[in-house]
Amino acid sequence: IVDDGSSDQTLQRVKQLSTSFPHIKWAHHAVCQGYGAAIRTGLRLSKYPWIFFSDGDRQFVLDELTTLAALSDQADIITGYRVQRADPLHRRLNAWLFEKGMRYCFGLRVRDVNCAFKLLRSDVVNALSLVSSGALINGEILTKAVRRGAKVLSVPVSHRPRQCGQQSGANLAVIARAMKEFLSLRRELRATS
């Protein structure tokens, strides 16, 4: 569990859980570093051959991980795509525009790039030099992995309305940061092509 500088009781609850369940590992950012930084921290601290990640806002049905795991012999990355995305229209529009931008600028042909329900081979992810601290992290992972020859498989997953926390994906500062990271990734990939 990665707590990215939350101001609620997340850290205290995670500490309590890890006392009762020592297999729970956690990391804490003292200040919010961004969604991508939290994902990078979790990936870096993972120690098993496969890494699964999802957000903690209860929008995904974690039992559906078995669907992804059953396909692990067919791909290096198995990513969900939300069948009926339970987000407001403006978030769905932002996601559609982002996906088109990823396809046009990077040739990434993955449905629902930012779906936070992914199973990844750790050796594939560990070979990537990831730098995104914001919302671009999923696009960066997928783009760099595909360019290194990784096979990506997309599967449908359920998506529920958000039950807790605040959505930040439509926040202008988050969008501006994603655009800056998008342009930076484009420059990086052009320089290495």
Describe the overall structure.
The structure is a single chain. 42% of the residues lie in helices and 15% in strands. The strands form 2 sheets. It has a 4-stranded mixed β-sheet with strand order 3-5-4-6. The termini are far apart. The mean pLDDT is 91. It has 193 residues and is α/β, with parallel strands linked by helices. The radius of gyration is 16 Å and the shape is globular. The protein has 7 helices and 6 strands, in the order βαβαβαβαβααβα. Helix 1 (10-20) links the parallel strand 1 (2-4) and strand 2 (27-29).
Low-confidence parts: none
Q: Please state how the strands of the largest beta sheet are arranged side by side.
A: 3-5-4-6
Secondary-structure element pattern, one letter each: EHEHEHEHEHHEH
C-alpha geometry? globular
Fraction of helical residues = 40-55%
Q: Helix segment count?
A: 7
> Measured on Cα atoms, how large is the radius of gyration?
16 Å
Q: What is the SS-derived class?
A: alpha/beta
Terminal residue distance: 35 Å
